[in-house]
């Protein structure tokens, strides 16, 4: 399969061929015209190999969007697959956080070792981390302690700096969510905070960062994997209410011997989607 990386400003340009996959990346603010590179890096939460776009010193994750029904008109050709790959900016600190965490070789209360960047970014099986060397030098001081010995610079991840950075991310997201999705605007402030932590948590390992973040914000930790499993197993809340109401009415009718009126069932809202359900990250096999 041939990959085409295109740019998007006010107009989206398409290249159509039966075995061509189209990636759309915004060119606003890139500050250059260097061709982008597709890098395979470890996903910060799962450690699975994931495809990212690195262009003009900006790291972008590839999002996959597909509706149930949709096709693309490409000139005189119709592509049956209406899916779309889009490259959206991601904070490189999220991607580099587990690499820097492992590199300090922390044991117990020991804060770990200071290491040079080229050492830290030498990741077995993932040589493309070396492309991020200038990017890491610019952004990782926000979560690291640094020491300079002569012309050499050494880095060590600092837990307190990481938590302060994560708290800032959550705070910004909490303010933004109600503006993006009416579902968030209608719920309470605490629940919006929990949702913001949950979204940020998609880029964090449960141990130690996600649990530490919950504790730092004074929230009760909920295992995201268990939460999703429970959602799949539990019936819809509206269905529960309607079943209970119908059952109660049937019992009452049996006692009185009267054919009671059919209870008007609550109308389940349709067509409303959560903003988080619109996109999924493209894993290595899709890229």
Description:
The protein is α+β, with helices and mostly antiparallel strands and 287 residues long. It has helices spanning 92-103, 117-120, 133-139, 159-180, 182-185, 189-200, 206-216, 224-233, 237-256, and strands spanning 2-8, 20-26, 37-42, 49-55, 58-65, 72-74, 77-79, 84-89, 144-149, 152-157, 280-281. Strands 1, 2, 3, 4, 5, 8 and 11 form a seven-stranded mixed sheet that branches. It has a two-stranded antiparallel ribbon with strand order 6-7. α4 (159-180) packs across α6 (189-200). The chain is globular, with a radius of gyration of 24 Å.
Structural features:
single chain, 287 residues, alpha+beta, seven-stranded mixed β-sheet, two-stranded antiparallel sheet, 9 helices, disordered N terminus, nucleus, Rnh202_N
Brief write-up:
The protein is an alpha+beta fold and 287 residues long. The chain contains nine helices and eleven strands.
Largest sheet: 7 strands, mixed
Strand content is: 15-25%
Task: Kindly report the average pLDDT value.
Answer: 76
What class would the helix/strand composition place it in? alpha+beta
What are the low-pLDDT stretches, counting only 5+ consecutive residues below 50?
1-20, 228-248, 260-269
Q: What is the number of helical segments per DSSP (H or I, 4+ residues)? A: 9
Number of strands: 11
Order of helices and strands: EEEEEEEEHHHEEHHHHHHE
Helix share bin:
25-40%
First-last Cα distance = 9 Å
Q: Can you tell me the overall shape?
A: globular
Give Rg in angstroms. 24 Å
